Amino acid sequence: MYLPTTVFSKNKATNIEFKYKNMNLGELERLIDVVKIKIIRDQKGTWSKGSTTYLNALFDEINEVKEELSSGKQCFLEDELGDILWVYLCFVHNLEVEGKVSMSRVFERSLIKYSERVNGINNGDCWDKIKKKQKIYLELEQSTFTSTIHQQNTDTL
User: Fold this and answer.
1) Is 49 helix (H, G, I), strand (E, B) or coil?
2) Which residues contact 139 (CB under 8 A, 6 or more apart)?
3) For 13-59, how does the pLDDT look when each residue is reduced to its tens digit (9 = 90+)?
4) Which CATH class is domain 24-101?
5) 3-state SS assignment for residue 17
6) What is the spatial distance between Cα 123 and Cα 67, in angstroms, rounded to a whole number?
7) Distance from the first to the final alpha carbon of the chain
8) Which residues of the chain register pLDDT less than 50?
9) Which residue spans of the chain are classified as CATH 1.10.287.1080?
10) Which residues contact 5 (CB under 8 A, 6 or more apart)?
11) pTM score, two decimals?
C-alpha cells in the first residue's frame, strides 16, 4: 500500500513522497489467480452471465464505496475498495474468456497511457493535448487491426 509522507512548512504541503509498504506485485498476481479460479467456477454455475454480471456489479460496489467514504470507517472503506478491484478483475477476465480483450494488454495499455500522461505533465505538456494525441494513435491502431481482421476473413473465403 502507498502511504503518503508529507512535509509541511508554513501550514502548506511542500513535498509528498509515497512509500511502498507491505504490498508487492505478487499479491496482485495471487489475486488474479483467485479471479481465474472463480471465473472457472462461475462457468459451471448458472448465476453468472459472464462479463455483464460483473459490469453491473461494478456500479453496486461504487455506490457502496460512496457510502463508506462518509462513514469514517477506514476498514470498511478499504474492504469496499477491494471489492471494486475484485469485481473489476473478474469483469476483465470474463471479457478475456469471451475473446473480447487480453487482460495483459489492458494492463499494458493502462501503464503506457498514464506513464505518458504523467511524464508529459511533469515535462510541461498539457494532459488534454497528450490525451488527444493518444486517441489518434489508438484510432490508427484500431483501423489497422480492423483491416487485418477483414483481410484474414477475406483470405479464408
Assistant:
1) coil
2) none
3) 444 454 455 667 889 999 999 999 999 999 999 999 999 999 999 99
4) mainly alpha
5) strand
6) 38
7) 53
8) 1-16, 18-19
9) 24-101
10) 16, 17, 18, 19
11) 0.78
